[in-house]
Design goal:
This protein is mostly beta strands and 389 residues long. The protein has six helices and 18 strands.
Length: 389
């Protein structure tokens, strides 16, 4: 029902302006109701929704610019290459004795994933799994004549984060870096939810670029408004991760939440019949930006904190000891208004029943608190071969 709300809003908006045949009742909802009449009772809701989806997607479009394929169902085989990286930085300062910064970079490499997607007229669900890795992605999309909604949930794990340091102490400067192997990996889970409205839905089709439920026949552009919600959790709070927790000044888990709104521009270029090149760029204002940081203490088997011993008596410290991490405190930042941006691009070729799409998007998110700051960058490139039936 949530996914259908934008569609219902569009139908209500255009109901008063579209011409309908005389035998119809006067708007899309009546058309949908008429289509369900005479059908088995249990199937009537299905036919009602089906007619509403079929009609609302093209009710206000110029058919010389946008075409609706006759076959409504689609299935895709997908392969993707993605890269998600998280940079965390912690500041260190002890009066006049030590001043420096430690940064930690974790990423999922450049894994290749395989997956499938299936949908009806722009409403579909997809799932993919990394080959030889520990990552997966679930996606849901709902696209109509002037709007698009996308949900993506992805996870990955990093066993060897790269740790770099730079310190100045009593006139001496030291710097370096290395990969730190972890028995228990850094766990990253992200949720993206975004939605767009195209002001030139009569000539421009977002669906033609990103799920092929419509086909762009002539080039057109559109001013676009969008909203984006993002939530991510990063955790390395297992006992075996105590060295990383120490270096990050006791931080063992973080949660980021952001809400963005923006205005941008999208353009569909049709260089030849069957071809489409689409691009969109949207600067966004981050009006809600919250970070929860969880702090841990590292203790030996007697419950004694080993924090100072590990940092200030490193030559005598037993790095092979059995230590545990204990959660001590949670710190939440206040809302900090900032900016963000969303960018995506696709290349499409349509046959009569098949289509091929290459698609990429990029997002970045930043956080900061009194202990340090960081950023999460995420880009993905898809290649999809779809079949309509």
């Amino acid at each position: 029902m949530i996914a259908l709300m934008p569609l219902i809003a569009v139908a209500q908006d255009i109901a008063a302006t579209i011409p309908v045949p005389a035998q119809k009742s006067g708007n899309l909802f009546h058309m949908a109701s008429d289509s369900a009449k005479g059908k088995p009772v249990l199937l009537q809701p299905f036919y009602w929704v089906k007619t509403l989806i079929d009609s609302s997607a093209v009710a206000t479009v110029d058919r010389s610019y946008i075409e609706q394929p006759k076959k409504s169902w689609s299935v895709e085989a997908r392969t993707s290459v993605s890269h998600s990286s998280l940079n965390m930085e912690a500041d260190w300062s002890f009066e006049d004795l030590l001043d420096g910064r430690i940064s930690t970079d974790t990423d999922n490499g450049y894994p290749v994933s395989l997956g499938v997607w299936a949908g009806y007229r722009g409403y579909g669900i997809g799932i993919s799994k990394q080959l030889g890795g520990e990552g997966s992605t679930f996606s849901f999309g709902a696209m109509g004549g002037s709007f698009g909604i996308n949900l993506r949930i992805s996870t990955y794990r990093c066993h060897t984060p790269y740790v770099a340091y730079s310190f100045a102490s009593v006139g001496e400067v030291s710097a370096g870096g290395e990969k730190v192997p972890l028995d228990d990996p850094v766990r990253v889970r992200s949720l993206f939810l975004d939605g767009y409205y195209m002001f030139n839905g009569k000539h421009f089709s977002y669906a033609a670029a990103y799920d092929q439920s419509l086909i762009q026949r002539r080039s057109a552009g559109s001013l676009a408004a969008g909203v984006m919600y993002y939530h991510s959790s990063v955790a390395y709070d297992e006992d075996s991760c105590w060295p990383l927790i120490l270096m990050m000044r006791g931080i063992g888990k973080m949660k980021f939440t952001q809400a963005n709104v923006g205005v941008g521009y999208a353009y569909n270029w049709v260089p030849a019949r069957g071809w489409l090149v689409s691009a969109m760029c949207m600067p966004m204002l981050t009006f809600y930006n919250k970070t929860n940081v969880y702090y841990y203490d590292t203790q030996d088997h007697n419950g004694v904190s080993v924090y100072e011993a590990a940092l200030f008596d490193s030559e005598n410290f037993d790095y092979d000891g059995n230590y545990k991490v204990v959660e001590e405190d949670e710190y939440s930042t206040n809302n900090r208004v900032t900016w963000n941006f969303d960018a995506r691009m696709s290349l499409v070729y349509n046959w009569s029943n098949f289509y091929l799409r290459v698609y990429g998007h990029y997002n970045r998110f930043r956080y900061s608190n009194d202990e340090g700051d960081g950023r999460l960058s995420d880009w993905t490139a898809y290649a999809s071969l779809g079949f309509r039936f």
